[in-house]
Amino acid sequence: MQAEFELRADAPPVETVTELTRRVKRLLEEGIAPGWVRGEVSNLRAQASGHVYFSLKDAGAQLACVLFRGDALRQTVALRDGLQVLAGGDLSVYEQRGQYQLIVRRLQEDGLGRLQQEFERLKQRLAAEGLFDPARKAPLPDLPGTIGFLTSPTGAAVRDFIRILQRRGWRGRLVVLPAKVQGDGAAAELAAQLGRAVALNVFDLLVIGRGGGSLEDLWAFNEEVLVRAVAACPVPIISAVGHEIDFTLCDFAADVRAETPSAAAELISSRFLACADRAAQAAAGLERAAGRTIERAAERLDHARSRLRLLSPRALLEQSRLRLDDLANRAAAAAQAALDARRQQLTAAAGRFRAAAPEPRLTLAAHRLEALGKRLAAASPASVLNRGFVIVRDEQGVPVLRGRAVRPGQRLTNEFADVRVNVRAD
Question: Are 213 and 179 in contact (CB under 8 A)?
């Protein structure tokens, strides 16, 4: 074997690493068709560019995978380490490392994907048979007297269902029909219990359902035997399986789908409450109509009584007495008003007489004369001298008004309040 790799003149040309890697890449990409690979996700890395790198592994090997940004945006599977997936794509070679890898174009969870595909196939087949036709669906009774609930007797769904009916005041009989709602044989047991409920012929409405869970947990409600039993049920039936986002084939086969068992209880009690409200409104309307009729009859009776009182002799006599009292009151009021008017006129004349009398004017003139006398006395020379002032007079007895008019040696007379003093100017 070693001789085959000896370099000879006629040997093939030597390839570079790049050339050999590209030849391997062409062989892989052209020789192996795109396909699906099952494995467990590991070494998951999401790059800022949007590309996602990870490995698929099983017990014997592992495969490098890349999910480019455009393909990653279209996926509905939330990747995480340890998740079992089915990856569809093309094999290629990353030349810089000489490593082959799977270019992933499509992802779906392993197991869930198979169930989802089976769900869609069975849905299409049963729909083609007309099992989901709206014309087959029966209307729900407004006031069901007896309701049967096919579910697990120990689950939270039945407790929530009963609690809501009680809280909203529903009146009727509820019978819990126990059955498995998960696992092997659950669909057959539910279908058999549904058949027994129909055979009893005591139920006005049936409810079939359970609380939420994964697609595998709810799968019993997708099995054909139960879906056909629900579609063939002659009693109106509500399917209340899982949460609001969960859909099962029983939802399509039933007469009505409720998002949850609690929503089914609210739907039933809402119909009951609506009927009870209509009955209450009708009773209130009847009571109002009876009240209005009684009020109108009472008004007519009062009117007749009033007319009878007005036409009786006693009423006429009472009216005459009232009129006489009224006229007497009006005459007394008129006389009193005339008397008050005369009194007011007399008072006004007395006022004018007092205003024209001479005594007030004489008194006022005396007061004014007295005030003028006081002012004159206050301004007299004697009053000025009594306040400590002195009048200086010259030889002729003329008052000296300015100091510069006095001559040295001039003889002057100083007049005080009580005496005159002769002086000489120095």
Answer: no
